[in-house]
Design brief:
By secondary structure, the chain is mostly beta strands. Helix content is 0%, strand content 48%. It is built from no helices and 20 strands. The strands form five sheets. Strands 1-2-3-4 form a four-stranded antiparallel sheet, with no helix packed on it. Strand 10 and strand 11 form a beta hairpin. The two termini are 16 Å apart.
Length: 254
């Protein structure tokens, strides 16, 4: 769809749940997680041909994909036993390279715009927090130290900020911090909100928000996309024909 919700169209046919779509830098491919045949795996979707294919030959579940800034590889998380680690998959050779190891769940990786660093969330320290490492897997350091748990980090296209989801005291929040962990600011809070994505200019975020949507029995909720600027002002809902989640802003289109 357009950034204002217009010209909405479906790419997948709805037979299987599809989550966390992410754009290739050339805007011709999308990486996403699909529950096709009850096997949660990362797929590639070619926008020109409509072809879908699984990425990699991992034994366990794969999730939370993102393309490298140069478009030559995808980082993702793969589960094995009780752990989840981050891998890089070369798109030309399909060679897989493990970037993290050890106990815990390492998920939601995102490259810095220059491709030299990766931010991700992990519970390796006993609680879900944000970590930054070199693109090759070394130099690991924790950057989140506020109250609560942190998830779904994404690097700003300008490289100056990392957006995240924070869960504390039963409340969700969307915020930003500098790549060194300083300057943390909460932009919006609510009952359920997650999955920030930056506009190409780095000045606006989209995310999805859950709100109660009572049926005749008083049950249920609705999931909708919202937009807010990085100063925490001008929040508004992006109208979609159905419930929507996991927004991903495309690169600038020529």
């Amino acid at each position: 769809m357009d950034q204002d919700g217009e010209n909405h169209r479906f790419l997948t046919d709805g037979r299987f749940q599809a989550l966390t779509p992410r754009w290739h830098p050339n805007a011709q491919q999308i990486a996403f997680m699909s529950y096709a045949n009850n096997q949660p795996r990362v797929f590639l979707f070619n926008l020109e041909t409509g072809r879908q294919e699984p990425l990699g030959s991992f034994a366990g579940m794969t999730l939370s994909p993102r393309f490298a800034p140069d478009g030559r590889s995808v980082i993702l998380s793969s589960t094995r036993g009780g752990d989840a680690n981050i891998f890089s998959v070369d798109l030309a050779t399909r060679q897989e390279r493990q970037l993290t190891s050890g106990g815990g769940l390492d998920v939601s990786p995102s490259y810095s715009p220059d491709g030299t660093q990766i931010v991700f969330n992990s519970d390796r320290g006993g609680d879900q927090q944000l970590y930054v490492m070199e693109a090759g897997g070394g130099g690991l350091r924790r950057i989140s130290f506020g109250r609560g748990r942190y998830a779904t980090p994404v690097w700003s296209p300008r490289g100056d900020l990392i957006a995240f989801t924070r869960i504390a005291g039963g409340q969700f929040a969307i915020g930003v911090m500098r790549p060194d962990g300083g300057g943390e600011r909460i932009l919006s809070e609510g009952w359920g909100m997650e999955g920030p994505t930056f506009a190409p200019n780095g000045r606006v975020l989209m995310f999805y928000r859950e709100t109660p949507a009572r049926d005749s029995r008083g049950n249920g909720y609705s999931t909708r996309i919202s937009m807010i600027d990085i100063a925490g002002f001008n929040e508004r809902q992006v109208i979609t024909p159905t419930d929507a989640s996991d927004p991903a802003w495309s690169p600038l289109l020529s």
